[in-house]
Specification:
β11 and β12 form a beta hairpin. Helices cover 19% and strands 31% of the residues. α3 packs across α6 and α6 packs across α7. The strands form eight sheets. The chain has a 16-stranded parallel β-sheet that branches. It is an alpha/beta fold. It folds into two domains: 227 residues, Spore Coat Polysaccharide Biosynthesis Protein SpsA, Chain A (Alpha-Beta Complex), CATH 3.90.550.10; 186 residues, UDP N-Acetylglucosamine Acyltransferase, domain 1 (3 Solenoid). The structure holds uridine-diphosphate-N-acetylglucosamine and magnesium ion (MG). Magnesium ion binds next to loops.
Amino acid sequence: MPKNKNFAAVVLAAGLGTRMKSDLPKVLHYLGDMSLAERAIRKIAELEPAKIIVITGHKAEMVEAELKKKLAHLGDKLVFVRQKRLLGSGRAVQEAMGEIRRHAHVMVLCGDAPLMRASTTRKMRDLYFRNGPGCLVMTADLDEPGSYGRIRRDHAGNVAAIVEAADADEWERAIKEVNSGTYFFNAAALGKAVRNLKKKGSKGEYYLTDALENIIAAGGRVEAFKLADPTEMSGINSRADLAAAYAMLNRRKAADLMAAGVTVVDPSNTYIEEGVQIGADTVVYPGIFLKGATVIGKGCKIGPCGVIEDCVIDDGAVVKYSCALEKSRVRQGAIVGPFARLRPLSDIGPAAEIGNFAEVKKSRIGRGSKMHHHSYVGDTEMGEKVNIGAGTITCNYDGVNKNRTVIGAGAFIGSNTNLVAPVNIGPGAYTAAGSTITENVPGGTLGIARARQVVKRLKKRTK
Ligand code: UD1
Ligand code: MG
């Protein structure tokens, strides 16, 4: 067992990704809420390597800028090495040896394999440090090994080499055990092994996979860590792969939630990102997108249809069909929708009700308050048990500033009221339907601000 467990992770992300047929580098394509590269790096960061070395090449500036922005929290842990000559995975590692050599061990993985679970790589790391081989390669048995490199074993069953599909003979092509592209290496052994890689294939590339034979030739040991779930190694090479991977992540997430007591009515038509948390006995109906850091409590009803992003929804709340909620809080027992919109920083109080075509922005809606139809409430502080009549609008923007509206507990805002902010409606105050309120209405009074109705006799029409 090696004493020094200092290891770096190398993420290979320099390749062209030709089959994506895209101006965007392959590793920057999004899978759910993050790019392929970001996902791979976040997963590997969970293992706490001393450094994460990302090898960039194709459109390097773009890849580096995006990853620095999205992974700023990793600070100096994240380093980039630009591969000068895009001549294969072996060449990529050769060019990064300067960085790799500072560490005793190194994990190498591909930036285009986003389905790997952190729990699996953690197991692999533990096995590597337990046995201390020159290389531990992650493999899987596939019924259709396709274009993956084949694991050739010797008579004793030990890994002898990896043969790339393009260079394999008929016998080798029939091997079902393939290379996942994830490895742990002793850094010194790897350094020696990549120094004498030979050019291979029609493009004259240097294969990292040939390093294994070199390690064995130098007296080192190569072992395999076989995946129990081969889908984890799926690499993304095309848009079809991307869609299949999305479906896979989504299925996994729904399965985890169902195992924890959440009802997902129709998992294949429900989209729940990895970071979303949902409590037991909540029912999630089809057609909904649950995104980002959304946390949903117990016993809620969510959907069908709609988008909920970065929200906190407390126990027993209901979000009915076709709502759009963003960076908002819905408190216990509140009812939102159908067809409601909560823009960022809305806080819907316990048992409050937000109905159809109601929009709330940066406002607190008090406990038990009701805003049932066709209204806009923005930059507002509202007390308990307020009634907002249909068509109420807070006129919060004067063209320069956003101004605040305050509505006291128990106030009754008549239908079609314009509340021209800044304005204060006192507790228990009323506004008359159709009023344009420009001045404060003290508590317990009625504000009327509309022209008095005139009824005129019709003139007789002459033909
Ligand atoms: C590679 C493996 C293969 C394995 C498969 C798993 C080699 C020679 N073969 O094949 O055994 O079954 O992955 O998915 O390694 N890259 C660079 N610089 C380069 C070329 C590639 O950084 O010059 C990066 C790519 O961005 C990619 C990774 O290396 O993330 C693998 O390269 P790719 O061309 O996709 O290799 P595969 O043919 O998939
Ligand atoms: Mg690949």
